[in-house]
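Supplementary Text 2. Reproducibility record for the structural model of the 454-residue chain.

All settings were left at their defaults, and a single model was retained for analysis rather than an ensemble. We include the record here because the model underlies the residue-level annotations in Supplementary Table 4.
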Amino acid sequence: MVFCRLSFCATLALLAGLTLGPPARAQNSAQGNPAAWLTRLFQPPAAAPVPGPGAGEAQWSGQSGASGDPRMTAAAIRAAAADFPNCIAGLWPQAERYGISRAAYQHFTAGLVPDLTIMDKLDAQPEFVKAPWDYLDLLVSDDRIAHGRELLAQYAPTFAAVERTYGVDKSIVAAIWGVESNYGTLGGDRPVLRSTATLACVGRRQEFFRGEFLAALEILQRGDIPPDRFVGSWAGAFGPTQFMPTSFLRYAVDFDGNGRRDVVDSVGDVIASTANNLKTDGWIRGQSWGYEVVLPQGFDYLLAGSARQMTVRQWQSLGVRRADGKPLPRPADRAGLLLPAGARGPAFLTLANFRVIMKYNPAEAYALAIGRLADRLRGGAPLIHSWPRDERVLTVDECYELQQLLAQRGFRIGAPDGLIGPQTRLAIRDFQTSIGAIPDGFASSAVLDRLRQR
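Retained model, structure tokens:
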């Protein structure tokens, strides 16, 4: 549904090694394909930076992208930018099949020029990553908790009506609002049509973004969002809960009944459209996203991970208990065990609704932030188990090295990319088992140090 919602895009350079899955939102039909990080250093500029169309506007660096994709070389970007008018003209037949009128197409694309500064963001190569505790500190802060509670009170009738209609916990919807755009204060200011047109004609994601560009045209033709309010992130996500154009067409609703689906300025439409998104993706009414839990002594850490799903009753039979001492409800629900910081950090049983949140943005760290912020908005306490804040977080290059060393030892990790995903975590667990360490799958500096030993 959405390729990259603003909050996650804005911190992607810091989070690449944390995400515990794909690091940017690439919903259902269009799964993301993050940079492979095969080029380990930025290349020098091929020529002087290309100026933007307006005085004082930010400029493209003129550098090739870090992914190594041939469409992200400086020369390819410049060539695609020069051919931009022909590319836009060539998309008209597809727009016509989308139901866009010729007059609307000509009107909205007249004078359109590419925003090449997006190329620096599309293929940015992070140097450092953010620890899960730092990420949650940022997104589940006291300010966001307080502001979210204020909005829940201010719009209580709307939240209640949406919850009745769609069956989605109002605190989850408010948490998405808070994480995605800090309650609308970080919504982005780039014209969505220009951003999606740029990405449809320049760079390595053209096929994906052509659909977003055509959807943006349909939104403008329908009049749901006024052109001057149709602004968002560099990847085209817009509104307080950061819809991409295609996901807007799929999920947005006119909850306030004014004849327009306005997920920018109508609070009712924002809340209801976000809830409808989650409901359509399989939200289970009355179920939590998950719980912080305590693991018993001698626990088998090979049971952790999203691939191993057992009933809550089965987890209880293994000695798993809620950290706050309360009973675990709905014993027949299936859950997985999440260890964001390994055996030394907090543990969480994550339920089906956690996986629904991950459809909104397919990263476990993101879903955990949403769940935890929602807990706090409804009056829940801070985490009981402390984070291992003394743990040194690996850089992207160190994660890349760790993957290479695992592969050299015969562990299956796929292609090294500097991102610690499920396959790499399984390989880490296998390596930890082979050396008699706790097999928690955490990419720690200790694991890297052991791998470096010959």
